UniProtKB/TrEMBL annotation:
Gene3D superfamilies: Bipartite methylase S protein (1.10.287.1120), DNA methylase specificity domains (3.90.220.20)
Pfam family, one: Methylase_S
Keyword set includes Glycoprotein: no
Protein known as: Type I restriction-modification system subunit S
Length: 449
């Protein structure tokens, strides 16, 4: 932003976190130039209230700057039977109660009439002073400062305090100047967003390539000159001639589901004890325990049947099937949770890293999802996972060699992906900094529109 110049003269805003603003800009409290309206939830028990044609916007819909619809919709009866009201197009929509407020204030403008749930607010600005688009940019640019200024203290769920919001100071540039600022921001953010989208797509392609590489490695190997044979499994096709076709259970000493029913209840959890690993604790192929989802040493002893040891594999039994992590020395004795499966490989037939890689492959994940049970969420059990067909080199030494070759290629792709991810992060920082500088008058955009 070094090519942008500051304004010729500034004044103290009187707002500590805002600092100086252009000398000719005004300052007003939001409540003196805005009207606020909230929302509500129609009764879920009344079918006549739902699946209508009025978008019912909740925090989960706030993923773009323009809201044209919502995941759920209500009927006119639902609108009349709730504390929500119809919000005409052109309002600023803001999330005022949600865990996302720990780090971000989602704001958008609706271009169609909508209703809101109780965790949302609609704001209509007095155009004599400010516009909805400028206020949206103001919130985006000053997100961190406004979170500190607006959040309700002591709330169980992060919430914006209506009084703090209404009493906050907002800069008021002259109308024509404000529109020039918005014109520049629209142009520059669109350019940055296009670059972000391009690089994000590149990252997705790299991940797809890595997934294809893993799948090829555990079904065809990485030696292009190896002789092939028919696997006898239709969808696997040809595999290396000397490889063996097995079921997952054939190369495991055991596959066990975590404790069920009364074996482990909420009353057993303590803070800072022996970790219990459920699917949510398996992140990026590693175990990331929750300090509050642990059990005492005595309870861990009682649950010793489900204890994991070094070299075991823990994998998700529900949700994202195939998500797994290898248990290392420091995790020896941790407990396999109810939502997980503990896999104990037969060390004479398969190394744990190979089984872990198989579960990362596209073919394994697709097979597990097709074979899983459960109407609303995919679920695995020992029998389903044990039935997974796989092919593998007959010796663990060859498995080790294959994984070493795969690691070299995976690391290369990971480095490229990391550079692209760093570039995306930098672009997002640049976008945010530009908006902040523009709406607070740190840069003069009057000649840039």
């Amino acid at each position: 932003m070094s090519h942008y110049k500051p304004y010729p003269a500034y004044k103290d805003s009187g707002v500590e976190w805002l600092g100086r603003v252009p000398e000719h800009w005004g300052l007003r409290r939001l409540k003196h130039m805005a009207r606020f309206s909230g929302g509500g939830t129609p009764s879920r028990d009344n079918a006549d209230f739902w699946n209508g044609n009025i978008p019912w916007v909740s925090p989960k819909d706030m993923k773009a700057e323009v809201i044209s619809g919502a995941e759920e919709a209500i009927t006119p009866k639902g609108l009349a039977g709730s504390s929500s009201s119809l919000v005409s197009a052109g309002h600023v929509l803001m999330v005022v109660r949600s865990g996302i407020l720990k780090h971000t204030i989602p704001v958008a403008i609706n271009d169609v009439p909508v209703a809101l749930n109780q965790d949302m607010k609609a704001i209509r600005l007095d155009s004599n002073y400010l516009t909805e688009r400028f206020f949206m940019r103001w919130v985006q640019g000053l997100n961190d400062e406004l979170l500190k200024d607006w959040l309700k203290q002591g709330a169980t769920v992060e919430s914006i305090e209506q009084e703090y919001l209404a009493n906050s100071w907002i800069v008021v540039p002259p109308g024509a100047e404000r529109e020039r600022i918005l014109k520049v921001l629209d142009r520059e953010t669109a350019r940055i967003d296009a670059l972000i989208e391009k690089k994000t797509r590149f990252i997705e392609l790299l991940r797809e390539k890595r997934q294809a590489l893993i799948t090829h490695a555990v079904t065809k190997g990485l030696d292009p000159n190896v002789k092939m044979k028919n696997s006898g499994v239709e969808w696997l096709g040809e595999v290396p001639e000397h490889w063996v076709v097995k079921r997952f259970r054939d190369i495991c000493l055991s596959i066990s589901t975590g404790p069920f029913g009364t074996a482990l209840g909420n009353e057993d959890y303590v803070t800072g004890g022996v970790p219990v690993i459920n699917p949510s604790h398996i992140v990026d192929e590693h175990c990331c325990p929750d300090p509050d989802i642990t059990v005492s040493a005595e309870t861990a002893e009682r649950l010793s049947f489900w204890a994991m040891r070094t070299g075991d594999l823990v994998t998700a039994r529900r949700g994202e099937l195939g998500r797994a992590a290898v248990i290392c020395d420091e995790q020896n004795g941790w407990i396999c949770g109810t939502g997980s499966l503990r896999v104990r490989p037969n060390p004479g037939q398969a190394i744990v890293g190979y089984l872990h890689t198989v579960l990362q492959s596209r073919y394994a994940r697709e097979w597990l999802n097709l074979a899983s049970v459960g109407a609303t969420m995919a679920n695995l059990n020992e029998g389903i996972l044990g039935s997974l067909p796989l092919v593998l080199p007959p010796s663990t030494a060859e498995q080790e060699k294959l994984l070493a070759l795969l690691e070299v290629q995976s690391v290369r792709l990971s480095k490229i992906e990391q550079r692209a991810a760093d570039s995306v992060a930098l672009l997002k920082e640049r976008r945010s900094a530009l908006i902040t500088a523009a709406v607070t008058g740190q840069i003069d955009l009057r000649e840039s529109a």
